[in-house]
Amino acid sequence: MEENIQPNGKKILCIEDERFISELYYRALNKAGYDTTIVVDGNDALQAALTDTYDIILLDIMIPSLTGFEILKKIRGGDTHLKAKVIITTNLEQAKEDRAEIEKQVDGYIIKAEVTPKQLVSFLEQFNQ
């Protein structure tokens, strides 16, 4: 029995280099109706983000080429005013002060090991308003 998936019109850029996690997210997000693009390299991710065609950017911190911190600095700083909500997705342990500083610059912060793909979809529903 094939599910009838209704697109919700939202585009997600998922910047994630761990194949298993990106596949889980891709399936869950597409099933929920999101148009999802997966990018594994920091340079490619930055270029994709700067197109300003995404509603939500899921940004892993530890990725090849450019770190998530570097990407965040480039898309949140200077003359760049992207419409996308930025959600940090990480398993990297952060000191409370560092995490608090990051959270000031983003719209959400998720510890990947603590969130199932279904919970991720539920979390993103708040941005569908």
Explain what this protein looks like in three dimensions:
This protein has 129 residues and is of the alpha/beta class. Helix content is 36%, strand content 19%. It is globular. The model has no long low-confidence stretch (mean pLDDT 89).
Which structural category fits the helices and strands? Answer: alpha/beta
Count all strands and give the number: 5
Helical content class: 25-40%
Enumerate how many helices there are, as a single number.
5
Oligomer: single chain
Beta content comes to 15-25%
Radius of gyration: 14 Å
Parts with pLDDT < 50 across at least 5 consecutive residues? none
SSE series? EHEHEHEHEH
- Please give the order of strands in the largest beta sheet: 2-1-3-4-5
Shape by Cα distribution: globular
Distance between the termini: 31 Å
Q: Characterize the main sheet.
A: 5 strands, parallel
pLDDT averaged over residues: 89
Task: Indicate the topology.
Blueprint: E1 11-15, H1 19-31, E2 35-39, H2 42-49, E3 56-60, H3 68-76, E4 85-90, H4 96-103, E5 108-111, H5 117-124
Parallel strand pairs: 1-2, 1-3, 3-4, 4-5
Helix pairs in contact: 1-5, 2-3
Main traits of this protein?
129 residues; five-stranded parallel β-sheet; 5 helices; 36% helix; globular
Please summarize what this structure is.
By secondary structure, the chain is α/β, with parallel strands linked by helices. The protein has helices at residues 19-31, 42-49, 68-76, 96-103, 117-124, and strands at residues 11-15, 35-39, 56-60, 85-90, 108-111.
